[in-house]
Amino acid sequence: MSAPPRPGTVDLRSDTLTAPTPAMREAMASALVGDDVYAEDPTLHELEERTAALLGHEAGLFFPTGSMANMVGVRLLVEPGQELLADVLSHVLRAELGGHGALGGITSRTWSDGLVDGTSPGRTLDARVPLALMAPDAGPHLVSTAAVAVENTHNFGGGTVQPLEQLQALRAGTAEAGVAVHLDGARLWNAHVATGVPLAVYGGLSDTVSVCFSKGLGAPVGSVLVTTADRIARARVLRKRYGGGMRQAGVLAAACLHALDHHVDRLAEDHVRARRLAEACAAAMPGSVVPAAVETNIVVLRTHDVPAAAVAAAAARQGVLVSALGPRVVRAVTHLDVDDAAVDRACEVLSGVLAGAVAA
Length: 360
Ligand SMILES: *Cc1c(COP(=O)(O)O)cnc(C)c1O
What we know:
By secondary structure, this protein is α/β, with parallel strands linked by helices. The protein folds into 2 domains: 10-18 and 266-359, Aspartate Aminotransferase, domain 1; 31-262, Type I PLP-dependent aspartate aminotransferase-like (Major domain) (Aspartate Aminotransferase, domain 2, 3-Layer(aba) Sandwich), CATH 3.40.640.10. It contains 14 helices and 12 strands. Helix 3 (66-77) packs across helix 10 (229-241). It is globular and about 60 Å long. The structure holds pyridoxal-5'-phosphate. Pyridoxal-5'-phosphate is lined by residues 65-67, 70, 91, 151, 155, 184, 186, 212, 214-215, 223. This is Threonine aldolase family protein. Pfam families: Beta_elim_lyase (PF01212).
């Protein structure tokens, strides 16, 4: 039901590219709806309640995008002029167009969770780093840290799963200092499926959590923010102020509920395929990626002295689309619309392109 750029194209640019399946479209077509600005959409309420329960929180609120859910989630924890700490490659600080500063008045400082250089296993949290960086109640001269944001899985870090013991250490250290934790869980589903750690365990280590249904779960639109019922009441005001008050959005929530029922466990298939792709790429260009560190559906490749744009262009000529994320960084993402045959084709094309580049 999707409209690929060319028939036979394998599109690994992102897991946001999935089109709703016929069964998902049927669920959307038959959804009960109401006006959600009046809080009268039963399907939306079902999704919000179900997501909150899964993550072990009191209440949830539906958002059109993960960026808006993150912006509101962080703003609930951080007042204008206070700061948010996050990894230097985090989505909240890098891919939300400065919204936390521009709209929320929030300042930020970053730490670096290590390199993704093809020889080390990607970006995973070392809780000691943000704990050493934070400055709660910094007084009248310095900016006070109000919250730390963690991304699980880490998108630009190569889909890495954050180690549970580091999340626990972060929770303990921040709680002691009165600093809050926001979890950007756009792909928390992938972390859960890869590790078997219950979603509620991850949820219990954070004050606010955002999750996306529009990535690997394959819904066309939608994120949910979960936290306490009091904070969700404030979040409803902020969401409307940011222009995100929706009307019969139950049509969208029905797609998300369908994804919860049918598309969570299958993420394991995406993980196996991503690992296979990483193995092919590492064999063709040694040091481009550590296959054993590819735990979920994202493969980040270091292309060494070969321009990432050249790799992406050469692969595209053979019908395999990947993203050039930086001058020497390529990203390939497996998802619902990439089956075994498609990933075989991607392995063949990408290893040919990378091996050719090494030989040249
Ligand atoms: C996709 C994504 C989001 C949300 O992005 P939207 O495009 O605004 O839905 C947030 N965090 C991470 C890590 C993501 O990958």
